[in-house]
Write a structure and sequence with these properties.
The longest helix has about 35 residues. This protein is α+β, with helices and mostly antiparallel strands. The protein contains five helices and seven strands. Strands 2-4-5-7-6 form a five-stranded mixed sheet. Strands 1-3 form a two-stranded antiparallel ribbon.
Length: about 200
């Protein structure tokens, strides 16, 4: 029989492999989608979207990652938030923003999705109570010429490509993306997309 310390070591290694595999898959997905956006070889199909349903679908896919850090993710999106945008792109944007939120939020933290209408647009927000971002780093987040490993102080480093892809997809859909952050008090990433014309 395996001793308890050996079992714990096997479980620890399995978790590390699982995290690495998910990270690799996420990177590959982002690379492929970003490459398509740069070459123009991608499908853009804007349609009426119920953001509450989109958000819930993305939250389900990110659930395991949040559970591993005991992070509570919730959506406060109202049922009437109807946008006109490409559904797959919006899912990719939310997936990347939530994944970043998990990465830079401490154990037991919280991430909240919300949305509000503003002059023909819907402003979607992904807020966390994590480590926050240095003011001098905020303007660097969406730039591909900056090494993301020099930004922030999380031990969970990323490629930064996710945010670049978010910016590309938000702009393709006719919106803008930005971040509001306070060091040590969390970050709120916001992006705008057109309201559906009813």
């Amino acid at each position: 029989e395996l001793e308890s310390d050996h079992i714990e070591e096997v479980v620890k290694m399995a978790r590390m492999i699982n995290v690495s595999a998910k990270s690799g898959r996420s990177l590959l997905e982002n690379l492929l989608e970003w490459a398509r956006s740069q070459t123009g070889v991608f499908n853009f199909y804007p349609e009426e979207l119920n953001l509450k349903y989109i958000a819930n679908e993305v939250l389900e896919s990110q659930g395991n990652n949040a559970i591993q850090k005991n992070i509570c993710i919730s959506s406060e999106m109202a049922n009437g938030m109807l946008a006109y945008a490409d559904g797959n792109m919006i899912k990719t944007i939310l997936r990347n923003l939530i994944s970043n939120g998990i990465k830079f939020t401490n154990l037991g933290g919280k991430i909240t999705l919300s949305a509000m209408k503003d002059e023909g647009f819907i402003i979607c927000s992904v807020a966390d109570d994590g480590i926050g971002i240095e003011p001098s780093d905020v303007d660097k987040l969406f730039r591909i010429d900056i090494n993301p490993n020099t930004i922030g102080n999380s031990t969970e480093k990323g490629t930064g490509l996710g945010l670049i892809l978010c910016k590309e997809f938000v702009e393709i859909n006719g919106g803008k993306i930005w971040v509001e952050s306070e060091l040590g008090a969390g970050s709120t990433f916001k992006f705008s997309i057109p309201v559906a014309k009813i």
